[in-house]
C-alpha cells in the first residue's frame, strides 16, 4: 500500500514521512510552545513554554522513537486568555522553534504551523521552508493554517476572510509553494490572490518537497486536504470521551480518505489524545480530577469561547469540562489501558496519534518508558533503533 500510494510517491525515498509509515500507528508529540499548554488549570506542574523546556521534550520524544513533533501557532493580545494563569500569554513561534530544534534532534520530523493568510507571500515561505528543510536534513514539515479568529486578522490590519474563500486562497498559496520548490527555472505566475515574476528558490527541499499538513473538518477544509496534504489533523466529532470518539471516527476517517482517493491521492489522519497515564486507573483519574479542581474559570471560559465562537467547525462536541483538561480525546488509565485505546483509535481509522500531556516532561518520560514498549508489543510501533 505504502509504495503504491500517491502521497508517498510525491516525496523522495528516505523522507521522514516514509520512515513514519513503517509503523502501524504514527506517533507524534504536541509540543507545549504556549504558556499553560492545553489546560487552563493551576494544578501543580512544571510544564513551560520556554525554548529549553521544549527542546528537552523534543529530545526525549526522539529518544523514545516518536516520529514527529509539532507546535501550534497563535496570535493573542496582552494577557492571553486571561484569568489568574494568563493562559497562553507567552508562546514561542513554531517556525523559528523548528529551526532551533533541528540542531537538537536527528530523526524527528519537525512540523511548523504557519498562518499563510496573515501577510505571507509564497516566495517568502518557499524560501524559508527550503532553508529549514536543509538545516534539519530534510526533516521539516509545514502545517498550513488559514486562521479563523477575527481578532487575529485585525492584529495584522486585515479584514476577516469568509470561510470557504480562506481555503481557496490556501490552495492557491500551496500550489505556488510546490511550483517554486519543484521548478529549476524562474517562475512567473499570476494568481487570483498572489503573483510573482521570475521568482526562484534555492536550495531545493531534500525530498522533493516538505511534508504538508493541515487540520480539516469542513467540506472546504477537506477539499483542500485531499488535494494538498499528506497528514490531516482531525478532531473527534464525538467530543473528548474516547467511547464516543471511537463510535464517530470510523465514518469520519472514511469520509476524509474518500475525498483524497477521489483525487487519486492518499492521506493519513492523526488525532490528538491528551494522555493521563499512571500505575493504577484510580491514580490516573485522580490526576484528571486535580486538573478540573484547579481550573482557571476566567481563562477556561475565554478559551472555549474563542475556539467555538468563530466559523471553524472543529471541536464543537467538547464540553466545558473537556476544554479545561485540553486535548481532543482524553485517554486516562494505566499503560495497558492507554495502549488499548490506541488500538481502538487505529481500528477506527486513525493513522496516528499526536499526544499531549499536563506535566510534560515527567508524563512524557512515563509514556516513553511504560507505554511505548507496550505499543511495540501490540504491533502499533516498530522497536526504536
TrEMBL record:
Pfam families hit by this protein: Bac_luciferase
Entry annotated with the keyword Oxidoreductase: yes
Annotated transmembrane regions: none
All residue ranges annotated as the Luciferase-like domain in the record: 28-351
Gene3D superfamilies: Luciferase-like domain (3.20.20.30)
Alphabetical UniProt keywords: Flavoprotein, FMN, Monooxygenase, Oxidoreductase
Domain of life: Bacteria
Protein name: LLM class flavin-dependent oxidoreductase
Organism ancestry: Bacteria, Bacillati, Actinomycetota, Actinomycetes, Pseudonocardiales
